[in-house]
Amino acid sequence: MSEGSPARPASQETETETETTGETGGEADATTEDAAATPERTTGAAAVVTALERANVEHVFGVQGGAIMPVYDALYHSDIAHVTMAHEQGAAHAADAYGQVTGAPGVCFATSGPGATNLVTGIADANMDSDPVLALTGQVPTNFVGNDAFQETDTVGVTRPITKANYFADDETTIGDLVTEAFTVAGEGRPGPTLVDLPKDVTNAETEARPPEERDAAAAPAAEPQAVERAAEALASAEKPLVLAGGGVTKANASEELRRFATTFEVPVVTTMPGIGTFPEDHDLCLSWAGMHGTGYANMAISHTDCLLAVGTRFDDRLTGGIETFAPDATVVHVDIDPAEISKNVHADYPLVGDAGVVLDQLFETLPDGPDDRWATWREQCATWKEEYPMSYTTPDDEPLKPQFVVEALDEMTPDDTLVTTGVGQHQMWAAQFWTYTEPRTYISSHGLGTMGYGLPAAIGAKLAAPDREVVCFDGDGSFLMTVQELSVAVRENLDITVVVLNNEAIGMVRQWQDAFFGGRRMASEYRWMPDFATLAEAFGARGFTVDDYDDVADTLEAALDYDGPSVVDAFVDPAENVYPMVPSGGANDQFALSEDHL
Amino acid sequence: MHGPAPEERTRPVGRRSSQGIRVDPHAEATHEPRRTALSALVYHEPGVLAKVSGLVSRRQFNIESLTVGSTTNPETARITLVIEEPEPGVRQVEKQLLKLQPVISVRELGGDAIRRELVVLKVHGDEPDKVNAITQMYDGRTLDAGPRTITVEITGDEQKINDAIDAYRQFGIRELARTGQTALARGDEWTTDAEEERYERMQTEMGTSDSE
């Protein structure tokens, strides 16, 4: 089909190559030699790489392929380290976690067509969690676009609803500018994924144009002073104030400002799940996280507060439950950098549009000094709820291993700054409930999209972002199987990560819902057969362990942590164990169930 | 010791409406859907209409009509969006539109804005005199009159167009095409801030060059 169509001279040579090598790329010797002989040759692809270098990008995650080959070729002479992932979804998740740990956009590469569509899940995930990600995708040459060419997809069209911004680079003289802009947009303000689609003729084309030097970051925006004063008055006159810290606090690096605010005024703090770690969970004022599987005391506090200072949260339905019953007595002070989040789900009585850290400081300066004595009663009430509804589980000797025990055991063995990644499901909830997070950016999970398979590639991205820190991944058996191939990458890169599979032989969260709300009809949620994950790990070149007994947990986890490389612990846990507390979908936060009896 | 079971716990008294607004004597509010027009100034670049319409549809806003056309600046276009939403929905559409990269400025048009729509409709030509009378009544124009059909155009606000269409029904309408509303703010008022700023900037620049 390419022979019959007019092609631009610049892209003609490599076009033939694409046809024969297809997605896998194959040998690129001819191109490599050419590049080695004339390293000063500047192309659209070189401008793309220069743009990444000028943005101080150190790692990129991706998979080779026909349409992205010129960009990979330009990477040949770059100091940027490329991590070849097993699947593009893994590349997007790894870039996402990398971006969460470093705070700057993570970068992923994919070729056109299937490469780009495989990124979609990861991009959508980053979009829901406002994670900074830059995706660069190859595209068929511009004169083929729209002709249903080999490996063509309308990537810009497909990703439009799931990106903060996306671009089609149709001009080699501005391609570097576009990549620089996309990188900046991904990281600034409310972060999010951006994408630049790179047609092969444009990346191949000769150009003298270079991308601009990285532009200075815009100053963090402050809220209007009069609005801050009104909000401060509302807080000061409250009887039962409560801070709700969301993922926006993490994104704004506002953990210090939050801690100063809450501890100075002695206001109890509840976080959302993405806000985990912004306030130390071992602090007296911390009520952990609220929502469907959040703590009973967090949900009681949300339901009874009369003034909710919500910072950097979009009031997701997993947090609010039924909107009609969410924080029913509270005036809401809503701090968010994105004006579109104000009064989207919960009406903001006092909207404060600005950077979380800046606005928290503005409020701090505006409020009268010191804690309000009237609030002591409220703090005591919160402490009572902590005693009434503690997070607990039972560990009788004759029962199968409890997943919560495994989480707590690993928490005890690892340093405070350990990075925890998770897949999605029951294990994710236990990892959030029974691990004590004291630092921001340490719980790295898929929140808004709920992407099973997120954990392992995220652990790879997290480890490369912070090689000196301990990285553990809690996964479920179902979730682990969705991206298990990325284990090959962890082995190839020799990444010291520890994966703990809380294996309950099911898509456990679905099974829990079937038991609770579908008359126990366990349709397609239980696995009748599962691979032996320890042997599977060994086949990939990792270390594999199994554990099913309380007495062996400590030794096994210790051995897995000690192993200098990727290890997988297949922990056979009690299939009957479910996640509690639970606010039934659409219910009121304070109507959480502590067991099956309450549902 | 575990605290009270769900049904035994003390419940807070307040509630929120389905729009997340606290329902109490001070803040009680329910919003009925209303029909309104938003004017968006956008960069005139490929895909901008798809971005705007995609955003409106995927967020489930109830769209009545959407028109697009050029402005005094060749680099920008105006999109007039008629929606039927309760107040919080209108504000959401406005704010979500502003988040789109090619959108420069968005303004909800007031009740006194000048709104116009064009309809071209084709009726059976059995009673040409009667058709002509109706056309004149609505300040319309006959575009084509043949032995079998008569095609007319009517311009006006939405209500006038609706009335005119009703009036033509007696002849049997074969087909019709409506453009949807396009609108500008009335009088001195600017439709969007960005246009006002650009106009003033250009006035200043012209003033500067004159004096040089």
UniProtKB/TrEMBL annotation, chain A:
Its EC number is 2.2.1.6
Bias class Low complexity marks the residues at 21-42
Q: Region Disordered: list its residue ranges.
A: 1-42, 190-226
Q: How is the cofactor bound?
A: Binds 1 Mg(2+) ion per subunit.
Q: Which residues form a coiled coil?
A: none
- So what does this thing catalyse? 2 pyruvate + H(+) = (2S)-2-acetolactate + CO2
**The organism's place on the tree of life at top rank:** Archaea
One GO molecular-function annotation for this sequence? thiamine pyrophosphate binding
Which GO annotations describe the biological process of this protein? amino acid biosynthetic process; branched-chain amino acid biosynthetic process; sulfur compound biosynthetic process
Basic and acidic residues: compositionally biased ranges: 207-217
Pathway involvement of the protein, from the record: Amino-acid biosynthesis; L-valine biosynthesis; L-valine from pyruvate: step 1/4; Amino-acid biosynthesis; L-isoleucine biosynthesis; L-isoleucine from 2-oxobutanoate: step 1/4
| Domain Thiamine pyrophosphate enzyme central per the UniProt entry, residue ranges | 228-363
The EC category is transferase
Task: Identify the residues that the record assigns to the Thiamine pyrophosphate enzyme N-terminal TPP-binding domain, covering every copy.
Answer: 43-156
Which family, according to UniProt?
Belongs to the TPP enzyme family.
Q: What is this protein called?
A: Acetolactate synthase
From TrEMBL, chain B:
EC class (word): transferase
GO molecular function terms here? acetolactate synthase activity
Composition bias of kind Basic and acidic residues appears in: 1-11, 23-32
| Pathway of action | Amino-acid biosynthesis; L-valine biosynthesis; L-valine from pyruvate: step 1/4; Amino-acid biosynthesis; L-isoleucine biosynthesis; L-isoleucine from 2-oxobutanoate: step 1/4
Q: Which residues form the ACT domain?
A: 37-114
Return any one Pfam family short name. Answer: ALS_ss_C
Q: Which UniProt keywords apply?
A: Amino-acid biosynthesis, Branched-chain amino acid biosynthesis, Transferase
Keyword field contains Cytoplasm: no
Give the UniProt entry's GO cellular component terms.
cytoplasm
Q: Name one GO biological process term.
A: amino acid biosynthetic process
The Enzyme Commission number assigned here is 2.2.1.6
The record's region (Disordered) falls at 1-32, 190-212
Family (UniProt): Belongs to the acetolactate synthase small subunit family.
Record's protein name: Acetolactate synthase small subunit
Name the gene behind this protein: ilvN
